[in-house]
Amino acid sequence: MGVQANTRAIEKEIVTDFSERMSYGSYLDLDTLLSAQKPVSRPEHHDELLFIIQHQTTELWLKLVLHETLAARDAFDADDIGRALKCVARVKHIQKTLTEQWSVLATLTPTEYSEFRQFLGNSSGFQSYQYRAVEFVLGNKNAGMLKVFEADPAAHELLDRLLREPSLYDAFWQCLSRLGYDVPASALHRDVTVAYSLNDDLMPLIKFVYENSEEHWAVYEAFEEFVDLEENFQLWRFRHMRTVLRTIGMKSGTGGSSGVGFLQKALELTFFPELLAVRTEIGRR
How far apart are the C-alpha atoms of 239 and 103, rounded to whole Å? Predict the structure, then answer.
């Protein structure tokens, strides 16, 4: 039977008694989740809830990005490129959601934000340990960042561990070496505690794979997935910078940074530099 009087009947099989059953709300612990938004402005400003939820949802997505990226690294450690790329593919979809999310925050006008910004003190997205953890796993390591988290032992411990562990990219090259590819020693034995930078020794191997993709499809696909990952990350950074510019102009950040100028410098950072540099070399003889 169809809808009557614009009312959909509740099917008799639908469970309605949750006195002794796990419900949607209890499974997701919604009481905790929905009570975690605590505006600090006084009087409470209408738009602060948007600001809080924007950043809280970003942290939830970053938790999943970190979960999937670490799983991808584990898969490379097990020489399972297919499973690793499945994790990377999921991360790429999350990145698109995170980037589009900036459009919501961009509805916050400069005047609206200025009415509660002073209540934020020195809290800043710069202090997101999950964001730093993702950067570290992707190879953009900076030991100096750990100082920011000295007051948070758990966050500091996580970042210190990731600083000393191989990145996703490091694990990938180790995987290829075990699979018989001629990966140079400089890529296999680098100091993993420093930020990854372009390694010219890798360029012949990467160029060879691109120019013989049919015979090395899994590796070629991995290269392109990494390029997508980096491009998505840069789009996120760009939208972040433009949203900040739109909202506070050239003011300093609440955490003490120069604001837009500091965010612009992040656009010069890279995770997989050889995979972009090889574009210039492909086709050259």
Answer: 8
